[in-house]
Specification:
Layout lengths: L3 E2 L20 E10 L8 E10 L5 E3 L20 H17 L7 E5 L5 H7 L6 E5 L11 E3 L2 H7 L4 E5 L8 H7 L8 E7 L15 E2 L2 H10 L2 E7 L7 E8 L18 H17 L6 E5 L3 H7 L5 E6 L7 E2 L2 E5 H6 L3 E3 L7 H11 L3 E2 L1
Parallel strand pairs: 1-3, 5-6, 5-8, 6-7, 8-9, 13-14, 13-17, 14-16, 17-18
Antiparallel strand pairs: 2-3, 3-4, 4-10, 9-12, 11-12, 15-16
Length: 367
């Protein structure tokens, strides 16, 4: 396993209380192991300090070794990705089915990429103006208004629907909490979507994530900010991703909700279970001269760290020149013609559906 050791650090603001409201019921864990950022996926070892909320199980990094998620040679694209596209359609359908308000004038997606989700919602909320908050303007659809400041948008634009999908994990939630606590500017509706690390602990291997919020933590955060909620599942498999709609209450905000104590969580145990599982899976192919790993997810990255053979990656649809972990991604058609062997990570989303699809569509040897 080739791993780069990192010395440089980034400073992130610390939020003293957990998102659920607890300010003292914490456990702390030090862990010196490897992880990845969301862009380059290069494995890197550093010492991590985790703060675990014993009330809601949300996990916050409190060390100075958090990788910067916004600084990398970006070579991993979700363009034309079947999973990503299906995900956005599911979020869009959930919003459309649950928001019947016809007076929606402003939609905002925090970390919304090129704005694909907003354009899907525009079909329902036709008079609405669209706003996306991103680090860079490059690649954003021209029909969408670009902002780089969360505060500026919520203070100035009277947002009706605010969406955050897999983006708040890079923050400590403090700025959003302060803005939502202002009833005059807080949106009517809030949609949170993201990975539930309790049911998908592979998420803990992302070293550019500040906050792994639990499903319970998200609900209590919304309640503290004066929202009731409706919940769905992004996928009907093992509850690995949450999808929660917050609806603004008319009553005053209650920021002092004291939730019941939750069960404890063992980060080292969760991580070691995943590492051991992928070590076993890698041993099945380490006598092969070459192997192809399916997917460009965190599970594919973890599995690759224990492969001794020459390897590359494949997935359903590939953008021109797309790479993952520095390796060019090949098509399934190329893999089929070369008679190569395919290894599918055991914990990847919808594993059995992927296996069935490949068996039915390609003549590929699955390991």
């Amino acid at each position: 396993m080739k791993i780069k050791y990192k010395n440089k650090s980034n400073n992130f603001l610390l939020m003293q209380a957990c998102i659920c409201g607890s300010s003292s019921n914490f456990s702390y864990v030090l862990n010196n192991d490897f992880g990845f950022d969301h862009n380059s996926y290069k494995p890197c070892v550093n010492l991590k300090k985790y703060r675990i909320c014993n009330t809601c199980l949300s996990i916050k990094r409190e060390d100075n070794e958090i990788l910067n998620p916004f600084y990398s040679e970006y070579s991993h694209s979700t363009e034309n990705c079947i999973t990503a596209s299906n995900r956005l359609h599911r979020i869009s359908n959930f919003i459309i089915e649950n928001i019947e308000d016809k007076d929606i004038k402003n939609l905002c997606d925090f970390g919304g990429g090129d704005g694909e989700l907003l354009l899907l919602l525009k079909n329902k909320f036709q008079i609405a103006s669209l706003y996306v908050i991103e680090i860079m303007k490059e690649g954003i659809n021209k029909k969408i208004n670009y902002y780089s400041s969360l505060k500026e948008v919520l203070m100035d634009k009277n947002i009706d629907v605010f969406i955050a999908s897999n983006s708040l994990c890079y923050t400590d939630y403090s700025e959003l909490f302060n803005l939502l606590s202002n009833r005059e500017i807080s949106p009517k509706y809030i949609i949170f979507a993201g990975s539930d690390f309790i049911n998908r602990p592979s998420q803990l291997f992302y070293d550019d994530v500040t906050y792994n919020a639990s499903r319970k933590g998200i609900k209590l955060f919304l309640q503290r900010c004066g929202y009731e909620f409706k919940e769905s599942e992004l996928y009907d498999v093992n509850n690995k991703e949450y999808l929660i709609l917050g609806i603004k209450k008319k009553e005053p905000v209650n920021q002092n909700i004291i939730p019941q104590k939750y069960n404890k969580i063992n980060i080292n145990l969760l991580k070691n279970e995943i590492i051991n599982l992928y070590k076993v899976q890698a041993n099945l192919v380490n006598k092969e001269k070459k192997i192809t790993i399916f997917g460009t997810s965190i599970d594919s990255a973890i599995l690759s760290c224990f492969i001794n053979s020459e390897f590359n990656f494949t997935k359903d649809s590939i953008s021109k020149g797309e790479k993952f972990m520095g390796k060019e991604i090949i098509t399934l058609e190329t893999l089929e013609s070369s008679k190569g062997k395919l290894l599918i990570p055991k914990l990847i989303e919808k594993t059995q559906l992927i296996i069935d699809r490949i068996i039915n569509s390609y003549n590929i040897d699955l390991v």
